[in-house]
Amino acid sequence: MKIIDILEINRGGAKILVEDSSALFHPSGGGQPGDTGTIQGVESSNFRAGVLDTLKNKELGDSNTFILDIAIKSGQPEKGMELTAQVDAARNRVLSRMHTAQHIFSRIQEAGSDKASQTPQTTKVNLGTEESSISIRYDGNLTWESLFAAEEKTNEIIADHRKITSSVMSREEAEKLPGLDAKWDRIKDESVTVVSIEGIDTMACAGTHVSDSGDIESFLVTGFNGSAPDWEVRFTVHASRLTEYGRRMRELLREVGCRPDQIRDVFLRQRTENDALRTALDKARAFISIPWEERKIGATKLTLYIAMIPGMSKDLMTTPAKSCVAEHPDSLCLVLLPENDIASPFPFLLLRGAELNVDLSGFIKKRPEIEARGGGKPDWQNGVTTQRSLSVWLTAIESFLSLS
Known about the structure:
By secondary structure, the chain is α+β, with helices and mostly antiparallel strands. It has 8 helices and 19 strands. 28% of the residues are buried.
């Protein structure tokens, strides 16, 4: 490997253009991150660096030249310097397993669609070493049942040890291949890498792949989100995650006190009950009467309404606090909701009326004595605090008003 040019250099790193005829480092592309590893100068050079990323050389369009984003450990890179290199093979192996698994899963989803007009189409891939994701465009409803079925089929193919081949050919040759899945608008190179998974898929793909589906080892859908037509499915190839998910499920079943086949119904019933309770609380807010304490503070004897109610929910206090400043637009309102545990942070609210010319922005940051974290807008501030002393709060508000 040889340094062709120094594209960028700073105190701790650089981007260098290298000639790599053996294609040792694989560049990022198609949702797969570039390879990482180490490089160092040969012979007497003391240059050593870690490779943070490998990028395609888009300007030259040469498959034998790449851009390495490096963190310099010693010495300095020089144009023309010969290098020895070592790729993080374990990381590349995981990404290859992830990429091949994604190909299989995506094809299975397409084949398992109920309607041809509603075929799930993979639009974007984001591969990682722990978890990966697939963006899917699908007008239908993506469900756990359909994902479980595709997951099971993917694992069957993994266990079947399907052969996987990768070959480089000209674009003209690739375009003549029957059944080739290719996004030609994204392919700019004259040569095309074609990846074939026995009985599953033939696709133009520049990423790295394993040679046998059994090398993937396992496949697990870890979650999904979105709504028609835009969905995202997350997955992993680490069998250990299945153990982790099983442990968490057993912990949850113990807390809920039901069988695995009952957990979904229990959750849905609890959610319905919570929704009903939330609706009832929303109605109750309008009838909550707060024993406001009225104080005159500052040189202008501004009115401050105070409520200090241990254990009360902040959600329940928000409406009464807003009503207070609405009824008294030239006043302030302070709500403190301390917990029984004196060491625990508790919620607070500070609001001003519409006729009060005070900007509350910065109150939390400028008054550290209130020991608070949070934020808000010019007319209200909220968050949590450990300051239980009302006198400290009053002094802090007076000091803040005097500087406003």
